[in-house]
Amino acid sequence: MTATTPDDALATALAPLAAGLAADDYRLDIAHTGEFAVTLTVVAGPGACADCLVPRDITRRMAEQRLAEVRRGAWTVDVRYPGDPTTP
Amino acid sequence: MIEILSPEGRVGTAAKQLAPSPELLAGKRIAVLDNLKPHAGYIQGAIARLVAERTGAAVSLEIAKVSAALPAEPEVMERLRAEADLVITGSADCGSCTSWSAYDTVELEQLGIPTVLLATAGFTELARQVSGLYGLPDARVLTVPGPLGGSSDAALDAMADAAVETALALFTGTADANSVTAPKDPS
User: The domain spanning residue A51 has which CATH number?
Assistant: First the structure.
């Protein structure tokens, strides 16, 4: 059996990241894809400016750091930005 | 009893230290690093001049980098290193510009220059998080309410006036600036 981290715990851990994105009118969608794996999809709102987006590597590293505080382990964070294939 | 130890360790950037804070600012040279976000240079310059007036410091340099979405160019960093004892960077008022202003701030602190990062309220937490990623979670972040773009000179001057005491405390290492510096009520 594989233990997983509750989705609400993930959302709480990533809330500061989501708040920073929301300040630029981006929404953060979180998909729990494995024991230590998430896919973060950043969705642009109507007022979002492409040049304002946090660099992807920064987003990934912040997420890894926050998730490791919830549950220690080697988290795999797949970050999808607007314009990426499969991203709205 | 058997004690089981986990071999997993914390992985991340090694912690860095803030540059030593001066006790007095008299005679110090203050520079502004402007990322060309709307009104960033204006309010950073206003805060620098207010700090200088109150302390006997001098504003020695106001310089811009090419883009808010990039780190400061090496020649800009070299001028700051040569011509400044204290720097105000910014503005941190979007995701990208906050990330790179935090990067510049950490780099300047590692050059031994106490550096205050000007952030608007919506981006203070991001500025702290990114500074932490670069190894300096206690970076000197000065928060103003914002917005900067679209605000009148009078509104920007009010924000600068309200922020100056916190800026002084951050430069001298006597504050952590966890609160927003709201403009004074003009009434």
Answer: 3.30.300.130
What number is the ipTM of this complex?
0.84
- Answer for the pair B85, B23: CB distance below 8 angstroms, yes or no: no
Write down the CATH superfamily of domain B29-172: Flavodoxin domain (3.40.50.360)
Question: Is A16 close to B125, i.e. CB distance below 8 A?
Answer: yes
Q: What is the pLDDT of residues B15-52, one digit of tens each?
A: 899 999 999 999 999 999 999 999 999 999 999 999 99
- Set of chain B residues whose Cβ sits within 8 Å of the Cβ of A61: 133
Cβ distance A55 to B99 less than 8 Å, yes or no, reads yes
